[in-house]
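stuck on whats below:

***
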Amino acid sequence: MAYLFTSESVSEGHPDKLCDHISDSILDACLSVDKRARVAVETMVKGTDEVSHIIVGGEVTLAHDADIDYEGIARRAAAEIGYTDHAFGMDALNTELCEVLVLISQQSADISQGVDEGKGLHLEQGAGDQGLMFGYASDESEEFPILAGSFMPLPAALAQRLTLELSRARKEGLLPWARPDAKSQVTVEYDGNGTPLHLETVVIAIQHDDLAHVQFDGDTDKERSLIVADIEEHIIRKIVPPSLLNIETKIIINGTGRFVLGGPHADAGLTGRKIIVDTYGGMGRHGGGAFSGKDPSKVDRSAAYAARWAAKHVVASGLSKKCEIQLAYAIGVAEPVSISVNVQTFGTGTIPNSELTDKVLQAFDFRPQAIIETLGLRAPIYARTAAGGHFGREPDNEGGFSWERLDEEKLSSLRA
């Protein structure tokens, strides 16, 4: 029986993603001066008619004294996204129209001793906290050239590509009326075997200039027609494979009619509030831990990356069409506590799950220190992950998205 599945994404200008970007920009700054920096930083933003507010709080521990300009980083990160006008929801560089409050202290010594190598009860780096993490991969997106190599659920992959393209088109002037805040949502119809058939619905919400009153003498219908035409031409037709669109596909753009007031003025933002957007769009399970603002000693982040890396290899090796891997850790302990590396293939595996689990454990080292070193996670690579999803992205030359790179030796090991 056919069924529908929906995933959403939000742009870098969404208030929650703005917070993620600020937190990860601070993390990158700390790692730039101390690659072993311990960072757990969260951000909140909210604007009013009179003034916008950025509140940065958390714990930072550096090996030596370093003057980190938290306020300046927060302001510049928001400005990079496009929040340079109070009418957009924030004027981040204007100290009279945007106030920044910094509340940062050092990491607890009790936590630190269990995470440092050679300290506490363990001689190697332990997990920075307890918790469970999931990694997921699927081959359903591989037949579409724009998504090939992503090994992601189709709705999530398309939703992420749409919001990334919205931000790119705005910055390059293809959408001169666009403001930073935006969302996308994609609903895919699958057949009874789980094969994607077509897109049932595509939803785009994008903040825009007040074109009706500035350009069209108050005519909101003309304003809407321009926005719809631009989005269909420059975004949807560019990103969505034509084979997935048919006459029954519903395209909804700014469903409320207008979206002028947005960003932190319209809605408060918080770091870590878009964890499903960050991962698999709801198709794979989530352990509950957010990523942004956390250094790689926090397994919420590093182990989730490692689990995704391993799951992607399983699917890319041809051993299954879908794969989900769960890891679980105790604070200060290096080995996962439930080698509930528990591989699930949802009936798509070519070998039993128990045998596949053994292969994964032989090919991958899930101790925090090994994950960090293998994936190069002590580098300042995190601000670029804050929007557009942490998975299904192209690895870059600076070490970003290293958990998306396929390793031929590991593929061979799994296939052996």
Observations:
- The longest helix spans residues 220-239.
- Residues 131-137+299-415 form a domain with the GMP Synthetase; Chain A, domain 3 fold (CATH 3.30.300.10).
